[in-house]
């Protein structure tokens, strides 16, 4: 059996997906990007293959993507994360229906990608200039509130009344605003909910730049936060499609492209 790997080296985390010849997801692994992208990507791949009991010789084609994609020297090919995200989202949502827009929130950027009915990327908008509306913003908030990013969703749903207004868009100012809110006796739950709505409002503005259509897929690490999903759905006025493994859509797309590129090379 031949296997294919998609390696997404993001600003915050490394995501690796292995698929078989039928583009079926066999396994995935994530790890922190840290400062040594190549070394950690290599170690993560080795660990994943060990868990899956697959020998590296059977991994016949590797596609890298993401921020650090060019640093992964063993890759047969590297592609932009926009393309990989689109391919992964269409495959992951195949049972759901047609995807027209993708919202991706990563560690240090957020994107809205518009697709045509053939799944081609027709437009995209990106915020990579500041932490507002990114995973980094959530990380700073969680740290200040002394809770885990994976707990933000639970806190969100325990908030009372109208969501608090958190106006700071800069992560540094948000930190001082949060200190002020805590000082005014607002609960951690209410602050978390307010933060989610402030991010959601920014994300909706980003999506408007490419056009809001039905069939919106949300991925990236923060899509695991059900509170944020809830806030974006309320601000958008429509349900989002969240895949089973939101953090690995882009690496899944890279692995699918690996199968296609390998097959193409075989016949040419
Ligand atoms: P990148 O591709 O830029 O490295 P990711 O898509 O991996 O980014 O997203 C990283 C972000 O995901 C983190 O900054 C964090 O805010 C968020 N995140 C990671 N794990 C979780 C989790 N279990 N629950 C909620 N959010 C998470």
Brief overview, please?
The chain has eight helices and ten strands.
Cα distance spanning the termini? 21 Å
Q: Number of helical segments?
A: 8
**Count of separate structural domains:** 2
CATH class of the largest domain: Alpha Beta
In CATH terms, what is the architecture of the largest domain?
2-Layer Sandwich
Strand content: 15-25%
CATH topology of the largest domain: Nucleotidyltransferase, domain 5
CATH superfamily of the largest domain: ATPase, nucleotide binding domain
Helix content: 40-55%
Dominant shape: globular
Please give the radius of gyration in angstroms: 19 Å
Q: List all distinct small molecules, including ions and cofactors, that are bound in this structure.
A: adenosine-5'-diphosphate
Q: What strand order characterises the main sheet? A: 3-2-1-4-5
Average pLDDT figure: 94
Give me the secondary-structure category: alpha/beta
Major sheet, described briefly? 5 strands, mixed
Low-confidence stretches: none
Order of helices and strands: EEEHEEHEEEHHHHEHEH
What kind of assembly state do the chains in view correspond to? single chain
What is the number of beta strands? 10
Structural overview:
With 268 residues, the protein is an alpha/beta fold. The protein folds into two domains: 116 residues, ATPase, nucleotide binding domain (Nucleotidyltransferase, domain 5, 2-Layer Sandwich), CATH 3.30.420; 147 residues, ATPase, nucleotide binding domain (Nucleotidyltransferase, domain 5), CATH 3.30.420.40. The chain contains eight helices and ten strands. The chain has a five-stranded mixed beta sheet. Strands 8-7-6-9-10 form a five-stranded mixed beta sheet, with helices on both faces. A hairpin with a 5-residue loop joins strand 7 and strand 8. Helix 2 crosses helix 8 and helix 3 runs parallel beside helix 5. The protein is globular and about 65 Å long. The mean pLDDT is 94. Adenosine-5'-diphosphate (ADP) binds next to helix 3.
């Amino acid at each position: 059996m031949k296997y294919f790997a998609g390696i997404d080296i993001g600003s915050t985390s490394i995501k690796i997906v292995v698929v078989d010849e039928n583009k079926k997801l066999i396994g995935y692994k994530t790890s922190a990007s840290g400062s040594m992208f190549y070394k950690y990507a290599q170690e993560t791949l080795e660990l994943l293959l060990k868990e899956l009991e697959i020998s590296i010789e059977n991994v016949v084609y590797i596609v890298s993507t993401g921020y650090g994609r060019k640093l992964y020297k063993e890759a047969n090919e590297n592609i932009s994360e926009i393309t990989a995200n689109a391919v992964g989202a269409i495959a992951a949502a195949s049972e759901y229906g047609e995807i027209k827009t993708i919202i991706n929130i990563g560690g240090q950027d957020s994107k809205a990608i518009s697709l045509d009915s053939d799944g081609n990327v027709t437009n995209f908008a990106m915020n990579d200039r500041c932490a507002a509306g990114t995973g980094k913003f959530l990380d700073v908030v969680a740290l200040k509130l002394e809770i885990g990013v994976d707990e933000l969703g639970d806190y969100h749903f325990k908030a009372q009344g109208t969501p608090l207004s958190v106006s700071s868009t800069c992560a540094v100012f948000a930190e001082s605003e949060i200190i002020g809110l805590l000082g005014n006796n607002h609960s951690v739950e209410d602050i978390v909910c307010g933060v989610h709505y402030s991010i959601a409002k920014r994300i909706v503005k980003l999506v408007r730049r490419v056009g809001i259509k039905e069939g919106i897929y949300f991925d990236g690490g923060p899509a695991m936060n059900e509170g944020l999903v809830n806030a974006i759905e309320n601000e958008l006025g429509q349900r989002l499609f969240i895949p089973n493994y939101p953090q690995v859509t882009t690496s899944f797309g890279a692995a699918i492209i690996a199968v296609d590129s390998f097959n193409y090379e075989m016949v040419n």
